[in-house]
Recover the amino acids of this structure.
């Protein structure tokens, strides 16, 4: 028998399947009619994998391994060591200290299980607070999901504490509680966690969601998908923000997409969505040198991961079209295709393009293009010192790989000379481009 209850705040219908208490099905009212979304149980956990690693698997599979950092120790008072949290999730300037607590014995009666959950919730939040406090005091070398080391200074991030519960049967209606810890905090089940990463497939988007949800009153464990679709419905109904499209120059258009999509990421174009993931993987796997290499890679990946989830399939389709189009020119000629985006804050610009071939002069020309567009936009916004521009160029090639991926990132005042600006402008401002402002 199935039990059905209405969620009055949003018009969502939630089905609880009594035969399988870990399953959840939502019927969502959308402008195009009802939409069914089945939320599967958490990913099965092999016996040889510890529970903290299970949380990392979801974040690395649907997000990026480069944003998932394993716990590390920091020496204190002689030979003692202090845990730095089960897992850290970092993207851009936001971080989550994730504490995983698992029920490893057969659950007891509901009242006892609720007491156990409240106890471990308080412990998890205290541990997360301690981990973040320690990172504020002493930066630490952290290892990401690809086994690379990056120095993490807690003062560089806005933090949230996440209590992640791995439990075979949370008593219905259980709301985890704890004393305030002086930072945003939220409790999720592993199914909630897997759902968010499967739905958004972006670490940046998941972190943004966690901060947004943590600002709301707590809800019963296991009902995060219901809250997600409440937010998604509100986003879909919200009018676009007013943005000056002239900030990107002539031809700029307003593109608005809900912050939280109702359909899972990639649902409307798997190949196109994979194009964006492959671009991220190209950057993640590129060889880098120098002691700041991983920090620089992290910054580039974070900037690219900020692309709104709802826009990624369209960008992926455009990139596929670009790569198929640019080789079709006479020998010794070069064809360029670009897409630009300026975020609603006016301080982050993303440029993705394709060119006919890979060559040193092509890279130099693209670098000049990125610098010119950065200078033009910051001159219009007046926010030079807080602004950055990331450029990603794809060039077709023969052989094992279908294309090369090159990146250029600039920030602040580039101090371009009048002569450089004249050369860059004469070289690039004769051609048309596709400029886009996202709202």
């Amino acid at each position: 028998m199935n039990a059905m209850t209405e969620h009055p705040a949003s018009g969502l219908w939630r089905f609880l399947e009594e035969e399988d208490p870990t399953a959840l099905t939502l019927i969502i009212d959308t402008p195009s009619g009802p939409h069914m979304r089945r939320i599967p149980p958490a990913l099965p956990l092999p016996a040889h994998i510890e529970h903290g690693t299970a949380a990392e698997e979801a974040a690395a599979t649907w997000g990026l391994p480069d944003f998932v950092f394993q716990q590390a120790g920091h020496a204190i008072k002689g030979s003692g060591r202090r845990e730095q949290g089960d897992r850290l999730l970092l993207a851009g300037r936001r971080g989550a200290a994730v504490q995983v607590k698992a029920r490893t014995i057969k659950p007891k009666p509901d009242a006892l299980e609720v007491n156990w959950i409240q106890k471990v919730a308080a412990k998890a939040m205290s541990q997360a607070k301690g981990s973040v406090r320690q990172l504020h005091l002493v930066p630490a070398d952290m290892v990401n999901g690809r086994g690379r080391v990056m120095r993490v200074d807690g003062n560089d991030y806005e933090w949230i504490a996440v209590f992640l519960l791995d439990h075979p049967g949370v008593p219905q209606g259980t709301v985890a509680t704890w004393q305030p810890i002086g930072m945003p905090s939220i409790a999720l089940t592993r199914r909630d966690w897997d759902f968010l990463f499967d739905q958004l497939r972006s670490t940046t988007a998941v972190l943004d969601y966690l901060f947004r949800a943590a600002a709301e009153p707590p809800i019963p464990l296991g009902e995060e998908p219901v809250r997600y679709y409440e937010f998604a419905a509100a986003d879909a109904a919200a009018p676009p923000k007013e943005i000056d499209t002239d900030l990107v120059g002539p031809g700029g258009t307003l593109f608005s997409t809900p912050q939280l999509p109702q359909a899972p990421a990639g649902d409307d174009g798997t190949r196109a969505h994979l194009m964006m993931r492959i671009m991220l993987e190209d950057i993640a796997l590129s060889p880098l040198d120098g002691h700041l290499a991983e920090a620089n890679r992290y910054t580039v990946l974070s900037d690219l991961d900020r692309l709104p989830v709802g826009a990624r399939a369209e960008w992926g389709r455009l990139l596929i079209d670009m790569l198929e189009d640019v080789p079709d020119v006479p020998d010794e000629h070069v064809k360029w295709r670009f897409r630009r985006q300026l975020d609603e804050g006016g301080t982050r610009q993303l440029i993705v393009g394709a060119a006919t071939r890979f060559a040193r002069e092509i890279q130099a020309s693209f670098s000049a293009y990125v610098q010119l567009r950065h200078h033009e936009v910051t001159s219009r916004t007046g926010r030079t010192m807080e602004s950055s521009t990331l450029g990603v160029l794809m060039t077709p090639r023969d052989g094992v790989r279908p294309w090369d991926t090159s990146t250029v990132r600039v920030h602040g005042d580039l101090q371009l000379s009048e002569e450089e600006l004249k050369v860059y402008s004469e070289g690039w401002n004769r051609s048309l481009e596709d400029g886009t402002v996202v709202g």
